[in-house]
């Protein structure tokens, strides 16, 4: 019991120290750090503007397959291009979940947000906004066409479950009106997932903005619309900018004024987006074979993440297993804190912390590197426990015999203990490797183009939710099946070697 209390005390002190560390305080002061009007200077010096968006919101922003390559298209993309052109820089788009955009802006991962974002009073506390560039009149409930007679008005959804994209104005509207309207709210990060939930009966309707809702209805004959009467001021969409960047806001407003004066949104941007969506949703264009390059790209990144993370996990696992077995109380305490903390916190949170938190101290950290580091660190904690259990499973007499023959402690571990421990823990290590391969999908939340990320792009581009998931599931199965066969092969080789000796 005393040992357990000591361990929890160490972990508590570690967390308290982390909370008071410069890393955490820098996270809280992220907006203050970019409040000196430096973003415009950064854009000019780098020669590019990094725009964050959630490309699952047609016709504002979505993806299209052009000659086997992914292309971002839509109203917001055209506006982003015009802003970059007027600033005389190149455009770089970072695609991520909508509810990750604000923290990405505050931590400097992106320069601006152009993603159909409404400048609510809550958001204005964290970031600044340009003027409204496009305003929608109302929201609509998207329903299955078979329920058209059942749902005719907002009151029809009493006691029903309505979905909305987390972080969106529609989600906020639902949450505020849920108790009064007697509506159950279901929030998901991707609209494509919401529509799959609708078609599978998990939700009764999905609340979307007018343009977005009408777009999905036009491109999917199985859907129908019901106009929403939930009270919510429709302020429209604006460009999000970090606090204090008045020069950048002014430049963006000039571009918006020019676009509005020439009526580019209604005359050019929206019609072009509608044309792109029509061609993308046609049976000829949305064949899964045409999107094979997406899956291939995603698989490539998945394997890179898996191999690199396994390497990091093995190295850290050995180090921290030996530290935890050490008689040195400091090394032992460090290993305990590392292992218990990483095993006791969600891996997705760790991925986001490394990218957004640690990434503020290490400027320009690529999302891929952050994902590999986070997954590798997490894997190291589990591998450390596997190795520790393997070492403990070796008969102490083996160590005593080796030492009595004159082997040093290091050579005893290397030639006697580790080979036997590896044989004992091989199945557990194999399970960890397979699990890590599947866990690589978590890095999609920070915009890494692995398999699940690319699957989301295919879903958005083709308006098909289930088939891309089925293909991805099959790819994961093939990869893990091959990995399992390889692990079993080496396990048999070790058993044969052991039997001969």
State the gist of this model.
Residues 299-488 form the ABC transmembrane type-1 domain. The protein folds into three domains: 34-135 and 237-284, 3-Layer(aba) Sandwich (D-Maltodextrin-Binding Protein, domain 2); 139-227, Periplasmic binding protein-like II (D-Maltodextrin-Binding Protein, domain 2), CATH 3.40.190.10; 290-500, MetI-like (MetI-like fold, Orthogonal Bundle).
Characterization of the model:
The protein is of the alpha/beta class and 501 residues long. The protein has helices spanning 2-19, 22-28, 30-33, 39-46, 75-87, 101-106, 121-124, 169-181, 191-199, 210-219, 246-261, 264-281, 292-325, 329-343, 347-361, 367-393, 396-404, 409-439, 451-462, 466-500, and strands at residues 48-53, 62-66, 69-73, 90-95, 112-117, 127-129, 139-144, 161-165, 184-188, 205-209, 223-227, 238-242. The protein has 20 helices and 12 strands. The strands form 3 sheets. Strands 4-1-5-12-6 form a 5-stranded mixed beta sheet. It has a 5-stranded mixed beta sheet with strand order 9-8-10-7-11, sandwiched between helices. α8 links the parallel β8 and β9 (184-188). The longest helix has 35 residues, at 466-500. The two termini are 43 Å apart.
